[in-house]
């Protein structure tokens, strides 16, 4: 059964500006493994924007937005084929109040925007 659906879109230029003008922007919002992913992708703003949009979409699928947890509580990496895979930490799992769940996410971008969708299912 679907618990929630979320989507988010963000202008890549907004993320570029935050990266360049906000000290520690990526370190405040992303995990160490995500930072490693970004470095492996040459810190491309569209990759960072995609992950940011995914975290926001997931927070909307959970139904709380980012009120009850930090964006660092969500980790978005890629599998060997490049598919985005999200891991939720214990702070979020407590909020969900389900024993088993499945989280599907999709990330895409063009020259100006990044978009993500999240579908959260009770198993």
From TrEMBL:
One of its GO terms (cellular component) is cytoplasm. Residues 4-94 form the 4'-phosphopantetheinyl transferase domain. The keyword Chloroplast does not apply. It comes from the Bacteria. Its main location: cytoplasm. The keyword Lipid biosynthesis applies. GO terms for biological process: fatty acid biosynthetic process. SUPFAM superfamilies: 4'-phosphopantetheinyl transferase. InterPro entries: 4-PPantetheinyl_Trfase_dom, 4-PPantetheinyl_Trfase_dom_sf, ACPS, Ppantetheine-prot_Trfase_dom. Keywords: Cytoplasm, Fatty acid biosynthesis, Fatty acid metabolism, Lipid biosynthesis, Lipid metabolism, Magnesium, Metal-binding, Transferase. Its EC number is 2.7.8.7. HAMAP family: AcpS. Belongs to the P-Pant transferase superfamily. AcpS family. This is Holo-[acyl-carrier-protein] synthase. It comes from Clostridium chauvoei. The gene is acpS.
